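sry for the spam today, last one i promise. struct tokens for design, 273 residues
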């Protein structure tokens, strides 16, 4: 399997002088996801939890809805010249009867911030494709539970502690019990890994849970929360306007600028007791 971190020599400069020493960096490598043998997408990710990443991606893109839709997930023999498997190509075989995605249409299911599709089309796409309705979830959470989550996430981010270069995503019960923590160079990948864990554990929809992300709350991350049936999304940084619009439409509670006892609740504040 691929390494999560690597070492590189650097010239460390301070007012006291220059020191040459090794520095620990997070690894970034491409992962190609294939479905039934056909290439679907390539994402730049940190190796680790790749099967969860692929499964979470397929769920949040609306290609699968449950673990039963997936027959197998295997690394392909994408090898280097010396015959060593790169572990950078995954092939997902769908259960017979599950439609194979149209590659030309798949990336139009949802418009991320880089796709250039208008906001209304983006919102309508999620509404039409999502099988779950966070708005129907009666979950509530105490503000002191939310306030404690960023510290819990930071303590659980082992690779971030050595590199400072990873995003984190974690799922919690509403009493603050940690369900899963995942890290990745891409914030969307970290969320897909956490959701993929839930899919593998047959916990979709993720009712009664809180998804915490270490950065901002973008439309893409909000869409992933809606697709997984998560009622509460919390972020330590700012939300985007489209993320707030989608959260309001889906009935998702969106909390941002979560820092200590301070937080902004943008939608469905009734869930924060």
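last one done:
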């Amino acid at each position: 399997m691929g390494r999560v971190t690597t070492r590189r020599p650097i010239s460390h400069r301070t007012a006291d002088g220059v020191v040459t020493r090794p520095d620990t960096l997070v690894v970034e490598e491409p992962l190609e996801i294939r479905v039934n043998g056909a290439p679907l997408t390539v994402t730049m990710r940190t190796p680790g939890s790749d099967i969860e990443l692929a499964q979470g991606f397929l769920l949040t893109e609306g290609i699968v809805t449950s673990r039963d839709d997936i027959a197998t997930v295997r690394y392909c023999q994408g090898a280097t010249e010396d015959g060593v498997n790169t572990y950078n190509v995954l092939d997902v075989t769908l259960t017979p009867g599950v439609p194979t995605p149209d590659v030309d249409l798949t990336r139009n299911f949802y418009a991320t911030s880089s796709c250039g599709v208008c906001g209304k089309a983006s919102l309508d796409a999620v509404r039409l494709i999502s099988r779950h309705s966070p708005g129907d979830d009666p979950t509530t959470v105490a503000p002191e539970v939310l306030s404690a989550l960023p510290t819990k996430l930071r303590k659980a981010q082992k690779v971030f502690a050595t590199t400072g270069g990873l995003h984190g995503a974690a799922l919690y019960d509403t009493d603050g019990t940690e369900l899963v923590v995942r890290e990745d160079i891409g914030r969307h990948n970290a969320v897909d890994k956490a959701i993929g864990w839930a899919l593998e554990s047959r916990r979709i929809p993720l009712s009664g849970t809180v998804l915490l992300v270490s950065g901002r709350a973008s439309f893409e991350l909000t869409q992933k929360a809606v697709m997984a049936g998560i009622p509460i999304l919390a972020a330590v940084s700012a939300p985007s306007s489209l993320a707030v619009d989608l959260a309001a439409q889906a009935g998702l509670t969106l909390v941002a600028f979560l820092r200590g006892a301070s937080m902004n609740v943008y939608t469905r504040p009734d869930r924060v007791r």
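The chain is about 30% helix and 30% strand. ok im logging off now
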